[in-house]
Specification:
ferrochelatase activity, 11 helices, iron, Rossmann fold, 2 domains, alpha/beta, 4-stranded parallel β-sheet, cytoplasm, 311 residues, 8 strands, Ferrochelatase_C, metal-binding
């Protein structure tokens, strides 16, 4: 007797695979409007600064999808889990992933986004696209909306904070400002009573409690240049303020909104924020990304499997 097959649509933002794909990728983000030469140069320069033509996000995402499939099948050998990628702004797109599942004869599916915190503008947008395509093709699919307080996720992030604090040597723990960060979104989500900001604070509080960190705050990063206000304060402004107003000289950034190494981590934090910190004579460290950490794979396996009974 064959095991029940369950398709898992693993969704993430996506990234170009090489420098010559940056323009098409940026055009898709801008809803079909090509970037100006200046905008394209700025983004290309950022990629070149971190990777020199090699794009780690795509490789990281591939490994996360493979790791999740292996973990699900190891945790639940009574099922046959098959993971599919669905990317927001690159090939294979979310709709392609759904279509491939149907082509492969999948009759039961679960969707999960590689982002622990829910916003209607982020995770909600992924789910909407997948839901519409699945409905069009007659595929039953359930979705994981968030997993921001899963015990293994908190443990993985807390381990990283504790380990990275050691890089400050003999500096007393209470003299190190821990700044938790996530990708900013337009301020209008506050009027919509979107859960995103509160979920991020809940994760931050849980990590602080587990690690015994009392000197912490939240900051935003990587806001878009869209002409509307985005959530702040930005991490660069946080560094300026804590340095000039509070004489803080040791900062640990923990980007809890990101699960793998990509542009917002490797450029916005490791290059841009680090340069700002050096100018302010701040010792800045960053916690390593989750990538394929076994605790993160366990988190995803748990939340995906929990949705299997919902069908």
């Amino acid at each position: 007797m064959s095991k029940p097959r369950i398709g898992v649509l693993v969704m993430s933002y996506g990234t170009p695979e090489s420098l010559d794909q940056v323009e098409a990728y940026y055009t898709h983000i801008r809803r079909g409007h090509p970037p100006t030469p200046e905008q394209l140069k700025d983004l290309t320069d950022r990629y070149e600064a971190i990777v020199g033509g090699f794009f780690p996000l795509r490789e990281n995402t591939n490994k996360q999808v493979q790791g999740l499939e292996q973990r699900l099948n190891a945790d639940h050998p009574e099922f046959d889990f098959v993971c599919y990628q669905g990317l927001k702004h690159a090939d294979p797109f979310i709709e392609d992933g759904v279509e491939q599942m149907v082509k492969d004869g999948i009759e039961q599916a679960v969707g999960v986004v590689l982002a622990p915190h829910y916003s209607i503008m982020s995770v909600g947008g992924y789910i909407k696209r997948a839901q519409e395509k699945a409905a069009e093709l007659g595929l039953p699919i359930q979705f994981v909306k968030s997993y921001h307080l899963h015990p293994e996720l908190i443990e993985a992030l807390s381990d990283r904070v504790s380990e990275t604090l050691k890089r400050f040597g003999d500096t007393p723990k209470d003299e190190i400002r821990v700044v938790f960060t996530a990708h900013s979104l337009p301020e209008r989500i506050l009027e919509m009573k979107d859960p995103y900001p509160e979920q991020l604070l809940e994760t931050s509080r849980a990590i602080a409690a587990k690690t015994g960190v009392t000197n912490w705050q939240f900051g935003w990063q990587s806001a878009g240049q869209t002409g509307v206000p985005w959530l702040g304060p930005d991490i660069l402004d946080v560094l300026e303020k804590v340095s000039t107003e509070e004489q803080v000289k040791h900062v640990l950034v923990c980007p809890i909104g990101f699960v793998s190494d990509h542009l917002e981590v490797l450029y916005d934090l490791d290059i841009e924020a680090q340069k700002k910190a050096q100018g302010l004579e701040i010792h800045l460290e960053r916690t390593p990304s989750l990538n394929t950490d076994p605790l993160y794979m366990k988190t995803l396996s748990d939340v995906v499997f929990a949705m299997c009974g919902a069908q």
